[in-house]
Amino acid sequence: MPFLAGFAALLCVWLFRRRAVWLYAAVACAFGVLQVWQTRESPATALAEFIGEDSLPALAVGRITGEPAAVGAKKFRFRLRLETLEVDGRTVPVDCEVRAVVPATCTVGWGDTVKILGNLQRIHAPRNPAQFDARRVMAQQGLTCELSASLPSDVSVLKAGSEFSLPRIASRCRQWMEKTLRIGISDQPLECDLIAGLVLGVTADIPENLQNRFRRTGTYHLFSVSGLHVGMIAVILWAILRLVQADRRTAVAIIIPALFFYALITGWKPASVRAATMAAIFLAGMAASRQQVPFNSLCAAGLVILAQSTNELFNPGFQLSFLVVAAILVFDRPIRDAIRTALRPDPFIPAQIWNWRERTANSSGKWGAELLAVSAAAWLGSLPLTVLFFGIISISALIANPIVVPLSFAIMATAMASLGAGIFAPWLASVLNNANLALVKILVAAINGISSMPFAYIPVAPFQPRTPEVVIFDFGPGGGTAIRSEKSVWLLDCGSVWDFQNTLTPWLRQAGRAMPDGIVFTHGDADHIAGAMELIPHESPHLIIDSPASDRSPSRKKIHGALAAAGLPKSIHRAGDSIGIGKSAHLHFLHPPAGNTGRISDDKVLVARLDFSGTRILFLSDAGPSTTDWLLKKHPGEIPADILVVGRHESGILPDGGFIMAVGPKLVVASSAAFPNNQPIPPEWAEMVASLGIELFRQDETGAVTIQPSPDGFSARGFVNSEIFSSPQRPR
After folding, report:
1. Which of 32, 67, 392, 429 has the smallest number of Cβ neighbours within 10 A?
2. What's the Rg (C-alpha) of the chain?
3. To the nearest whole number, what is the mean pLDDT of the chain?
4. What is the spatial distance between Cα 606 and Cα 668, in angstroms, rounded to a whole number?
5. Is the pLDDT of residue 728 over 80?
6. What is the DSSP annotation of 6-32?
């Protein structure tokens, strides 16, 4: 209401005073009205409030409004515009979209009307610091809830979408384009995936290590269908249409719909729609035969986009797009003029008598200055947000972009020629695809070379405190802990590949690190150590610690093979060994002993005690009864600790009261997951811990737990529920 009243009042003032400042203020209030409605009063928000944090059975009928996309190998995900919804047997009025997840064996397509029986819940909020916040990002796109079906029989198509609808046509076009771009080079899957990524924004099959090299050289935008791709398409179409002597207005009338159809082909993603809208505004100005005012066109594009969705203002992609374009408009000409002046021969020497060096410098200044200036201006524009959101300064981007952007333009132009040839001459498409294959190999070689340069990128953590801390991440049935002491960062286990990519990698970036100083593998469980493959063999911590106990873990064997292939050593530690982490932290290993003959991997875990600024933390990992009994018998004086961190043994058995009393912790942090069945915490065990006067942090309630030790005691905070527990140091 305040925004609405302010808008009406300011609009009235503007009608009488006719000063721009009042109109700008009225527009700002109108933005506030739209933002409040979209975030607080929208049907999607009302549905999320109705569901709460529960997962409820639901029966929904709706129309698919987005291209079904693969989620792993077993699921499809798409947007569903609800028509009717029954939740827990009650009919709920709806006028919004939800995100639907169905088995991959279901045959559904864009435009189909479907009935889905499944569980409806809010999109999950992050449970760990630095983890990707899917709830916030999806809410910005108008999605607050997710409907998940478990079986193919839970999904039925009530009415197939029209085969002649634009979305269906765009989907078939994309499939045909992907197939055509592989003609003649299908035996080179990596390069084919890269071409699909560069042309269509399809990145699911590109290895994460290679994607990281593009990110660190500031060139990952090549895979995001946004301003660069739309600009390339517009330039190529403009050149073709001018070649056939189409006039300006005809060319613009053809290019604008083509750009939006390209955005539809690539999935109608916000970045591509945003870029097509910006390009359409600029092109419409050209068609009007009026003098261009670039900043006015940029602001008009922003107004159109924000009128459609005010949440775009808080989207990092929107911010980067407009800040980069604005920086190019401001800095391009000064940088370009400075480069051309530096390369231009002495103006007092007539051009007729220039030698070859002077002619080369002059011609280089003409074409090179433009490319370098645009790259430098874009780098300056993106720098603040790159530091803020990604925690890196990519120095190599200044070198990489002037090289890879022309290469990507050549790849895009060759791909378009291949697609054109594929309509009537597949053999010619094969020839062009092989030319693209060579260009992509050059591109990959350039990225590999630039990313391996010293100081190619600098990890920064501008807003992160340097206080010592231990972060026990919530990875469900898996495990991972980060220890930060002075300038050292260590990982005790590192979760699954998904956990590493979505939580640990951004956490390390926020800590100003590209990689940890060391990783300790407690045992071979894939949910504890598989994420290490994201660092090996292309990068590696300074020290990798493993136990001498062997097991049959495929993940562990894969890691050992990668280490051996890369010539990277590992340090074997057992009971009685210790290492220093910074000046104030030491890790002491209490298990396994030499010659351990445990039956399963969980019985061979590395059990470690961390002594950190006077606080003792005992990490049991997934140790079971045989390990705790051995510790009580062999090391009763080594196990007392202020904090006990408990995983889950394969049997589901947790440490008994006798062991917990021997440890004597003030706080127990216990992992907990709803699946599999042996992961939830039994109520009787939680009651036993409480009866001993010990605080219990269940990670199904707290999420990640951050512990800050100090000589005076320690404090622990849950990430999800913000629960805080503080305790003074025990006397030693």
Report:
1. 32
2. 29
3. 84
4. 19
5. no
6. HHHHHHHHHHHH--HHHHHHHHHHHHH
Q: Tell me, what's the pLDDT at 501?
A: 86
Q: Which two tokens stand for residue 449?
A: 């070379």
pLDDT tens, 113-131? 999 999 999 999 999 998 9
Q: Which helix (H) or strand (E) holds 695?
A: strand 695-698
Q: Are strands 615-619 and 643-646 parallel, antiparallel or unpaired?
A: parallel
| Number of residues that this document lists for the chain | 732
> What residue spans define the domains of the chain?
2-41, 52-161, 315-391, 469-728
pLDDT tens by residue, 368-402: 777 788 888 888 888 888 887 777 788 888 888 88
Alpha-carbon distance of 273 to 262, in angstroms, equals 9
Confidence check: pLDDT of 538 > 70: no
Q: Is 330 helix (H, G, I), strand (E, B) or coil?
A: helix
Which tokens sit at 279? 């390009």
pLDDT recorded at residue 380: 86
- Are 52-161 and 469-728 in the same CATH fold? no
pLDDT of residue 128: 95
Q: What is the pLDDT of residues 657-672, one digit of tens each?
A: 999 999 999 999 998 8
Q: Are 122 and 48 in contact (CB under 8 A)?
A: yes
Residue 417 in contact with residue 410, Cβ under 8 Å? no
Position 294 pLDDT exceeds 80: no
Q: Which amino acid does the sequence have at 24?
A: Y
The CATH number given to 469-728 is 3.60.15.10
What pLDDT is stored for residue 643 in this prediction? 95
If you write DSSP's letter for every residue of 528-594 in order, what string do you get? HHGGGGGTTTTS--SEEEE-S-----HHHHHHHHHHHHHT---EE--TT-EEEETTTEEEEEEEPPT
Q: Which two tokens stand for residue 497?
A: 């590949």
Q: Is the pLDDT of residue 196 over 80?
A: yes
CA distance 655 to 671: 13
Residue 610, beta-bridge partner list: 587, 617
Q: How far is CA 608 from the centre of its chain?
A: 32
Terminal Cα distance for the chain, rounded: 61
The residues near 12 (Cβ < 8 Å, ≥ 6 apart) are none
Rounded to two decimals, the pTM is: 0.83
Q: Say whether pLDDT at 411 is over 90.
A: yes
CA distances from 365 to 35, 241, 330, 337 (A): 47, 29, 20, 9
User: Three-state SS for 367?
Assistant: helix
Tell me how crowded residue 657 is: count the other CB atoms within 10 A of its CB: 12
Structure tokens, 328 = 């190019």
Closest CA to 96 of 108, 79, 117: 79
Separation of alpha carbons 539 and 517, rounded Å: 11
**Residue 152 structure tokens:** 């193919």
Q: Which pLDDT score is estimated for 372? A: 80
88, 57 in Cβ contact below 8 A?
Answer: yes
Residues linked to residue 443 through DSSP beta bridges, in sequence order: none
Of residues 484 and 534, which shows the higher confidence score?
A: 484
Looking at the domain covering 52-161, what would its CATH class be? mainly beta
